């Protein structure tokens, strides 16, 4: 086990084929990262290799670095990208006898597209001369990049020169690297899947964003497989909890090895699902406009490319949001139409290569993992949780609290804190589980009040506005949002009555010119009060229909079935007659009660059903008794 003060970070090599990356890893760590028989035979790295390096920072802190050794050959750039997705520092290698070469350049661009900020540069094979010349070349090539001031150390694994200096430089550079954060959003992009006899399926990768525990329930995307972690190791040591920033191997014995592959991601189910149409900000390096090679050509709208995200490589079509192609040195918003979904967070970076996998064309950053709305406008600060929360709510109008920015590099606590601050500043409204833009909320309140007042004016006989009507009139799709709006209205001078909302002072009244119709309807219902005419018969026209609805809403008429209405007093009267009859004669059938009350089956059946529902009577076979 590592001491608590140990910091976990990841280093990856980079540089042209045959420039001595693997030899240097072996000299630094004692581990030969070329593990495949074919790699050893051909003396070339094909796939990722792994080692570990324990360092002491200048301040005495212990640093434990996972080392990923990548291939330099142009045919294996795909594997190289899979190795550097979550690294803290690049060990950037240029051979003294060869200088700056095509994959030196391509790897540099890939590192920069992925936002790698730190590097130590090794001028390898220093025993073969040209150290000064190559050092100058490197300085001039790195001018204007994130690595412009990175240390350059000449090394030779033949003579052992510089290995110690290199180790010290790595420790110094890593000591200023930000530690990996635990935001309780673990992701492990799988880079290896294999099976061990008697142990079962094992997947490995670099863990970021949170811890993973033995016994924890996890999900694998995009295959959507849920399973439990049986055991965890890091660099061969059995762990209870794996920390972010560590190379991690997890044993998933319940999953068949052929159902998982490199590129899949291990995470927890609470963070949302992968998406196929992310909105992104694309960027094309300006380093390319010097030469007229394929990578330098503008990236056109609707190009079909490969997107490299995490350890995955996915076919994609690019839909540029702004006119014209993406030229070298430009940034443009685009939507990616992915052949297979990726589990991306806001702020994740990726690399774009051409469909024949020959060239690196561009890079980018995810603005919206599930891009279906309008994209985030440029100019917001990706690293500022306030600005991100504010913009997201402004753009969408409202959001559910629990999944607001769940796929981002901020913890739930940081997001909650931002909500509190933004609410205090009056920029957003937080109501139970939803968050609404303040301006939108203000407008909705005004519109709702206007809608209710207009309804009272136009239909004074109605109790108010039906909630469903209000919802569609205001264009509110989310039921929780409507609910919150009603609660807000009711805090002012509005009242909710069943499925209606009205001004508290509103008393429904029939317009005078309709009052004769009301009289006629009351008379019709009162003539044979226990067996009145059907609803159809008493409301032959829209005016009469309006009156019946008014009488129902005001409680003067009771609707016991869609076609049967009774005056309230008739209903109460029938109820007491039923009580009387059953108390005297014991349980009675519909037919007995119908005869006793002088009613009909048409009225009696729904009446008794209603009394049953109210808990007044109870059914016993075909008879009714009192509760
Ligand atoms: N003279 C000399 N040869 C070296 C040195 N470092 C590496 N080599 C040789 O260079 C060749 C390539 O070394 P590797 O470490 O496999 O190169 P690599 O960069 O890992 O190659 P890929 O992974 O295939 O891109 C091997 O034959 C090494 O022995 C050095 O410092 N001096
Ligand atoms: Mg190698």
Helix content: 25-40%
Q: Roughly how many Å apart are the termini?
A: 70 Å
Count of helical stretches:
17
Structural category is alpha+beta
Computed CA radius of gyration, to the nearest angstrom: 36 Å
Oligomer: single chain
Largest β-sheet summary: 8 strands, antiparallel
Total beta strands: 33
Bound molecules: guanosine-5'-triphosphate, magnesium ion
Strand adjacency order, main sheet: 11-10-16-7-8-15-12-13
Poorly predicted segments: none
Average pLDDT confidence is: 92
Coarse morphology: elongated
Q: Which strand-content bin applies to the residues?
A: 25-35%
Explain how this protein is built.
There is one protein chain. The chain is α+β, with helices and mostly antiparallel strands. Helix content is 31%, strand content 27%. The chain contains 17 helices and 33 strands. The strands form eight sheets. Strands 11-10-16-7-8-15-12-13 form an eight-stranded antiparallel beta sheet, with no helix packed on it. The chain has a six-stranded mixed beta sheet with strand order 2-3-1-4-5-6, with helices on both faces. Helix 7 crosses helix 8 and helix 16 packs across helix 17. The longest helix is centred in the last third of the chain and has 21 residues, at 438-458. It starts with 6 loop residues before the first strand and ends with a strand. The mean pLDDT is 92. Magnesium ion (MG) binds at residues 21-22, 45, 69, 71.
Question: In a nutshell, what does this entry contain?
Answer:
By secondary structure, this protein is of the alpha+beta class. Helices cover 31% and strands 27% of the residues. The strands form eight sheets. The chain has an eight-stranded antiparallel beta sheet, with no helix packed on it. A six-stranded mixed beta sheet has the order 2-3-1-4-5-6, with helices on both faces. The chain has a six-stranded antiparallel barrel with strand order 17-20-19-18-21-22.
């Amino acid at each position: 086990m590592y001491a608590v003060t140990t910091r976990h970070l990841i280093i990856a090599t980079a540089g042209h084929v045959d420039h001595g990356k693997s030899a240097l890893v072996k000299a630094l760590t004692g581990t030969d990262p070329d593990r495949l028989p074919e790699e050893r035979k051909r003396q070339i790295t094909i796939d990722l290799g792994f080692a570990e390096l324990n360092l002491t920072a200048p301040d005495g802190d212990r640093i434990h670095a996972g080392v990923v050794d990548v291939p330099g050959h142009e045919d294996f750039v795909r594997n190289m990208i899979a190795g550097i997705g979550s690294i803290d520092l690049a060990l950037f290698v240029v051979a003294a006898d060869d200088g700056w070469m095509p994959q030196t350049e391509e790897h540099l661009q890939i590192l920069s597209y992925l936002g790698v900020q730190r590097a130590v540069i090794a001028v390898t094979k220093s025993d073969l001369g040209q150290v000064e010349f190559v050092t100058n070349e490197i300085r001039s090539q790195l001018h204007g990049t994130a690595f412009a001031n990175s240390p350059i150390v000449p090394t030779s694994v033949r003579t052992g020169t510089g290995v110690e200096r290199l180790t010290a430089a790595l420790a110094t550079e890593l000591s200023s690297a930000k530690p990996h954060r635990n935001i309780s959003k673990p992701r492990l992009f799988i880079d290896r899947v294999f099976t061990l006899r008697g142990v079962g399926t094992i997947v490995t990768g670099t863990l970021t964003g949170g811890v993973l525990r033995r016994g924890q329930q996890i999900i694998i995307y995009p295959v959507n497989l849920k399973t439990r972690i049986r055991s965890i190791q890091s660099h061969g040591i059995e762990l209870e909890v794996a920390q972010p920033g560590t190379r991690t191997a997890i044993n998933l014995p319940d999953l068949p090895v052929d159902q998982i592959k490199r590129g899949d991601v291990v995470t927890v189910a609470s963070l949302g699902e992968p998406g196929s149409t992310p909105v992104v900000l694309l960027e094309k390096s300006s380093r390319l406009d010097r030469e007229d090679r394929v990578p330098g050509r503008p990236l056109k709208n609707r190009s079909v490319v490969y997107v490299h995200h995490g350890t995955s490589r996915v076919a994609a079509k690019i839909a540029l949001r702004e006119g014209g192609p993406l030229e070298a040195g430009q940034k443009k918003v685009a939507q990616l139409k992915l052949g297979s979904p990726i589990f991306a967070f806001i702020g994740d970076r990726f690399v774009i290569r051409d469909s024949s996998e020959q060239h690196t064309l561009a890079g980018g950053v995810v603005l919206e993992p599930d891009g279906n709305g309008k994209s985030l406008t440029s100019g917001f600060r990706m690293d500022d949780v306030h600005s991100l929360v504010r913009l997201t709510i402004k753009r969408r109008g409202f959001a559910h609290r629990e999944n607001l920015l769940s796929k981002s590099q901020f913890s739930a606590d940081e997001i909650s804190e931002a909500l509190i601050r933004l609410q205090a500043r009056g920029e957003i409204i937080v109501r139970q589980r939803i968050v609404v833009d303040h301006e939108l909320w203000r407008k909705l309140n005004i519109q709702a009040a206007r809608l209710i007042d207009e309804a009272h004016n136009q239909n004074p006989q109605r109790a108010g506005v039906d909630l469903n009507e209000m919802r569609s009139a205001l264009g509110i799709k989310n039921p929780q949002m409507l609910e919150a709006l009603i609660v807000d209205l009711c805090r002012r001078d509005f009242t909710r009555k069943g499925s209606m909302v009205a001004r508290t002072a509103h008393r429904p009244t029939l317009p005078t010119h309709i009052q004769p119709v009301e009289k006629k309807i009351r008379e019709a219902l009162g003539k044979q009060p226990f067996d009145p005419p059907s609803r159809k018969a008493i409301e032959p026209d829209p005016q009469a229909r309006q009156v019946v609805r008014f009488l129902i809403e005001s409680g003067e008429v009771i609707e016991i079935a869609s076609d049967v209405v009774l005056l309230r007093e008739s209903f109460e009267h029938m109820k007491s007659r039923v009580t009387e009859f059953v108390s005297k004669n014991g349980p009675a059938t519909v037919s007995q009660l119908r005869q006793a009350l002088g009613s009909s089956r048409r009225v009696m059946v729904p009446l008794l059903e209603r009394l049953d529902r109210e808990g007044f009577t109870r059914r016993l076979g075909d008879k009714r008794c009192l509760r």
